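Q: Here's a chain of 515 amino acids. Please give me its 3D structure as tokens.
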Amino acid sequence: MSWRSDIGDALMHDYEIGLSSTASSSAPDIVPFRSTKHHFRFRLNHPDVPDGKEFFVIIKSISKAAVEGLQSIGPFIVDTTKPQFSGVKIDVNLKDEFLIANWTTNAFEDPNDPYPMHFQYAVGHRPNTYDIQHFRDLLFTGKCKRTIPATCTALPVSSLKWSLHGHHNYYFTIKATNLAGLSVMKTSVTYTHDVQLPAKGIVIDVPMMLNQSAQANKDIEDIDFSTDKTSLAVSWTGFAHPHESVNFSGCVGTLPKMCDVSAMTAFTESPSFSFKGLTLIPFQMYYVTLEARTRGGSVKVSSDGIRVLDINQNLTGINVWDGINCTDAPDLNNSHHSQDTRPKCKEDIAFQTSTSTLNVYWTIPAVYNDYVRDAFVRLEERLVGDVWMAFQPYTYVGRHRHETLTELDLKPGKSYRAVLKFCSEDICFPPVYGTGVTITSRPPSTGDIIVQMEDSIKHQLIVTFEKMFDPDIDDHAEAQSVVYFYEWALGDTVGIHTVWNEIDNGITLDADHVC
């Protein structure tokens, strides 16, 4: 210890130093007075001062006239115990271009010193190193508030000579010093500067495991349609990070990156997951959104969507017609008939003469275009009434809207109908049926004709004839019904002398005769 005196040295005889447990004691009880040999400084080696107890320094000045004076200084405390770090750890995080080190309120403590400690921090690439920044007082920002005792410090990234390097390690060292100058240092946990996001992979809608075997004949795993109204399954690939493991979570929504059907759920399985217990609306599109997360952030990728179908629902509004989708024939200017008797092009024919070929075409409402991908067509033959049997197996026609079935062996007098099956990949809806066509390959059979002169003056004739019929149709009434109309003309052994005229005033006499 050292001191200065306001009294000149020539007037002073000596100074004595003592240590006392009380102030201004004339008889120090810890260390009795010792002479300094007229010096203004003095060292006490190994004084018997209790640790942590208060004591006072007593300076006694003695003049040459033997006048004594006492000066009491203190109290003092001898502190030989360093502060301690009793916390768990010091965390480091990057927040808004600041590296923030955090510790708990009582992490640094000094039980033998009631006074606040002084904190400093340093930063290095390795534990207990300071190659990035040497010790300096704590810095506080919006993410790190000043408290007593201190619980955090901030390092602005902009203050560094070099920016933080990707996948490099950084360490904070916090030093707490008490009033005695004793300190403790603690190094933080490792902060690895990983800001690189995971690579964006692909998300694939896949069938549930129960339906996995149904996909064995496909060259791609992704599906676009499902009949399951309570579950969706998804798999993914390509999400990677060069340094970190990637954690996955996902949700289901009616739009990409939306979670309005199921909330974001952490995946415990990889690289596939099944959402169960859902309530899915038929014919609605659903998207699975996958979030891949690392410490540097996350990326979100959605599947291309899957549509839930109800295969028990009939596709209404589809029209299936027999024949060729054609236009009417041109007008006939010259003919030996009173009118054009050629068969008009009809939207849906009921009869045809060909026994080897049958044409069918169909229309599909635009509302089905998003999910009706494929069509199959087959023929059925009518047995009796409305009982039909398969005549030909299904033929794949893709997305065409017409098909010509050839190399057939259709039987005259029989009726055949086209059956269309529409599918979404391997999911097919109930079939749609055409009205059918009857094969009339031979001319109608004729019967007796009776001609009578009714009025010889007016030259009126009464003609009675048997109804004509198709010779190949077993049901006689049905065979007669296929004859649409009759025409008449007059002639002799030389030939016909009038044009053919339609009979429009005939009278049905009975089931088999017309007059």
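Q: Can you summarize the key feature?
A: Residues 449-514 form one domain.
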